[in-house]
């Protein structure tokens, strides 16, 4: 710590250093473990020709990326729509989870007393429990998807996510109704309820990190499209909703008087809609069809 960097700044810098270390280690492992064979034709190509064609290749890639959507079938558009709604649901939680715990459960404000910091630390504990459930779900995911179908499992997980967000709104209402905020720490029951919500959300988060990618790969295989381009379009369905939430959540919350509840309400609606799409609109047998890629 320095006079210009308090404890919060020091904690953030420490987290960044850890992130850099983890990224360096995982990048090294990926490079050393993936034994890729380079194309022989690329070595035979003159350097001048490669440099001259780089701009054309870039334009061709962008054209292919946006031109791919013309060949998407209805199930692919359904998966992209469900993915966009899913991330509209997830991103408010990923942005405001610990802030919600510190501000609306513990009744604190940043740099104003210890309550906010205690709440943020408790939120970090909830995220730890969330990660434990996420890991367990990842181990069991193959069996779940094989028995019930990937689309059905995705839909159920999103409905569970919507229920958890509604539960967060209820816990926020109860915390304000009890009247302890600004006077004392929250009751044990409120804290346990908040931690339980964080923990349960690990199940749908594990599904979100895996199932959409598997579904989009399966349904684009029969179209003869490159899976790299398909993954790019799927990533756009993830990134664009995140940008919308990042830009709009603050003004949206202020429109209703501040707090995180308005953003969580939108998240609950989006998660519920994506859950119904996953159950009703995504074909159950899509992942079981054997197709050959052109």
From TrEMBL:
One example GO MF annotation: sucrose:proton symporter activity
Membrane topology: Multi-pass membrane protein
Keywords from the named record: Membrane, Sugar transport, Symport, Transmembrane, Transmembrane helix, Transport
Principal subcellular localization: membrane
An annotated GO cellular component: vacuole
Location of the protein in the cell: Membrane
Transmembrane segments: 15-34, 76-96, 118-140, 152-175, 187-211, 223-243, 263-282
Pathway connected to this protein: Glycan biosynthesis; sucrose metabolism
Similarity comment text for this entry: Belongs to the glycoside-pentoside-hexuronide (GPH) cation symporter transporter (TC 2.A.2.4) family.
Designated name of the protein: MFS transporter
Native organism: Vigna unguiculata (Cowpea)
